[in-house]
Design a protein that fits this description.
The chain is 46% helix and 13% strand. With 218 residues, the protein is an alpha/beta fold. Helix 3 links the parallel strand 3 (51-54) and strand 4 (78-82). The termini are far apart.
Length: 218
């Protein structure tokens, strides 16, 4: 008899975790073997898994892209399980290498089918998220370099340009030049960000900053 696929879940809402466990309980080919509230907690337990189901919205301050990259670095396949209605975040996770996305609002049959397919290494894209995964031209990637991402993350999270300069080892003028180029890239992509609040929103949308639990802005 073929052993069941071993599934891990990263989800910090107990009710959601219990709900998914209930969905999978009657599936003999799928075994939910570990549940954790953060990616670091799951990895610390060093599980041998066929798939990790990952919530995009975690309360530990992590970003979707960082979480996916950490899991992929350990050779783990990832299926995003989310209630976040934000295609920019989904694209961010997709670029980091997830197998697919399924909404928490989907019916049990759809969720189970998505988990089964992803656990077998198949790509999974539900219809209403296909545009986000496939790179809909209405959702352009601004193409920030790693250094620009670092400056944007620090500045948009509330740091002043002078503080960003100290943290990155750049001059304040260089930081301001970076910010000007970042704003220009967003403008060229049709997503202008003239203010610090706008940059904060763009950084959240693109996964460089964690999704706030409330309507927080710097």
């Amino acid at each position: 008899m073929t052993p069941p696929r071993r599934i891990g879940l990263v989800e910090d809402h107990e009710s959601v975790a219990l709900g998914l466990a209930s969905m999978l309980a009657g599936e003999p080919d799928l075994e939910l073997t570990v549940t954790a509230g953060t990616v670091s907690e799951l990895l610390a337990r060093a599980p041998q898994l066929d798939l990790v189901i990952l919530d995009l919205r975690l309360s530990d301050g992590s970003t979707p892209q960082d979480n996916v990259q950490a899991l992929r670095a350990r050779g783990l396949e990832v299926l995003v399980f989310t209630g976040a209605d934000n295609p920019f975040l989904v694209r961010s996770a997709a670029r980091a290498g997830v197998l697919g996305v399924v909404r928490k609002s989907e019916d049990v049959r759809t969720v189970v089918a998505a988990v089964r397919a992803a656990a077998g290494g198949e790509q999974v894209v539900t219809t209403d998220w296909a545009a986000a995964i496939d790179g809909d031209p209405q959702l352009p990637d601004v193409g920030l370099s790693p250094r620009q991402q670092e400056v944007l993350t620090l500045y948009a999270s509330g740091e002043k340009a002078s503080r960003v300069a100290r943290l990155t080892g750049l001059s304040e003028q260089t930081v301001n030049d970076y910010l000007g180029r970042i704003r220009q890239k967003y403008a060229d992509a049709g997503r202008p960000a003239p203010t610090k609040t706008d940059l904060y929103k763009r950084a959240v949308e693109d996964g460089w900053l964690p999704v706030p639990e409330r309507n927080h802005q710097p």
